[in-house]
Specification:
Blueprint: H1 2-17, H2 41-44, H3 46-51, H4 72-80, H5 85-98, H6 105-124, H7 128-136
Length: 147
């Protein structure tokens, strides 16, 4: 049984490889994207660091001002609509301070997103030590582990 399986796989490989030397495959220097330099995400957003502009990763709701100030949705969108990195850092810190009490999955989602945004703002501002400090504060209690 094993011999028949081995011989059939070997035959497919031999027959399938015939003529492969005649294929016109791209050479390593002809590969798509050759000659381009790789840039890190920080380098892609370096114009934000220079100009101080800020845009959150998640889109800001168009109707966020319809919510009451002090609510999770209003405060999150208020922080996400900051115009500069320093303003965004202040707003995200305020959000995390005001909404530190996690009541349900909804509030945990927004709190975690705010932590990620604050961490991202610190990295974009060139303050990786502060970003790392925010990362160490993540609550990983709801993650499931594979057994």
């Amino acid at each position: 049984m094993h011999r028949i399986l081995f011989l059939s796989v070997w035959a497919v490989c031999v027959v399938g490889s015939a003529g492969c030397d005649k294929l016109s495959l791209p050479q390593p220097n002809q590969a798509q994207g050759a000659g381009r330099s790789r840039r890190t995400p920080v380098a892609n957003h370096s114009d934000r660091t220079v100009t101080g502009g800020y845009q959150s990763l998640l889109p800001v709701r168009h109707d966020w001002k319809d919510f009451a100030p002090g609510t999770i949705t209003y405060d999150w969108n208020y922080a996400a609509s900051a115009g500069s990195l320093s303003e965004a850092a202040q707003r995200w810190q305020e959000y995390l301070r005001e909404h530190s009490e996690i009541q349900d999955g909804f509030s945990k989602h927004f709190y975690t997103a705010a932590q990620i945004e604050l961490m991202r703002v610190y990295y974009l501002m060139g303050q990786p030590a502060k970003g790392d400090a925010v990362m160490r504060e993540f609550d990983l209690s709801t993650l499931e582990r594979k057994r």
